[in-house]
Design goal:
Elements (H helix, E strand, L loop, with lengths): L4 H12 L1 H11 L17 H12 L4 H15 L3 H10 L13 H13 L2 H9 L3 H12 L2
Helix pairs in contact: 1-6, 3-4, 4-6, 6-7
C-alpha cells in the first residue's frame, strides 16, 4: 500500500467500498436524518472521501473541494507526532498522516476516466440512482 499512498487507497475505495458508500448516501437522501454529521477518527480519509463525493455530486467547484479537504490538515498538527508513530508501526509513511496535494483532483480524475463522471459512478457502480441523487441535492441545496 505504501507506494500507492492515500490516492491509491482512494481508488481502491471507489472500486471496493460501494456498499458502504451506498449506505451513507441512503442516509443523506432521507431528510428525517438531518442535521447530519459525517465524521471519522481524523476527518480526512473516510470523511474526506465521502465529502469529496458529495460535494462533487452537488457540483461544487473542484478548487473549493480541494481547499476544504486540505483545510483538515491544520487541525491534524496537534496530534501529528503521535499519528506518525502509529503509522510507522503499521509500516506506513508520513504521507498517510496528512492531506496530500492533488488528492481531490486525482480522485475526481479517476472517477471521470474510469466511470464517466460522478453521477454515473454513483448510479451505475454504487447504486445511488438519479432519484436518490436528486433527493440529496434538493435537501442540501434547497433546504
Amino acid at each position: 500500500m505504501q507506494p500507492r499512498g492515500l490516492i491509491g487507497l482512494a481508488f481502491d475505495t471507489l472500486a471496493e467500498s460501494t456498499s458502504e458508500i451506498l449506505s451513507i448516501f441512503r442516509l443523506l437522501a432521507d431528510e428525517k436524518n438531518y442535521p447530519v454529521m459525517i465524521h471519522c477518527t481524523q476527518g480526512k480519509d473516510r470523511t474526506g472521501f465521502i465529502v469529496l463525493l458529495l460535494l462533487s455530486m452537488l457540483e461544487v467547484p473542484v478548487a473549493a473541494i480541494a481547499a476544504d479537504y486540505r483545510a483538515s490538515e491544520r487541525e491534524l498538527e496537534v496530534e501529528m507526532k503521535e499519528r506518525l508513530g502509529e503509522l510507522r508501526k503499521g509500516g506506513l509513511g508520513a504521507d498517510f498522516a496528512g492531506c496530500p496535494t492533488g488528492f481531490v483532483e486525482a480522485v475526481l480524475a479517476e472517477i471521470e476516466e474510469r466511470y464517466g463522471g460522478i453521477e454515473r459512478y454513483l448510479n451505475e457502480k454504487v447504486g445511488v440512482d438519479e432519484g436518490m441523487q436528486h433527493k440529496i441535492k434538493n435537501i442540501m441545496l434547497h433546504p
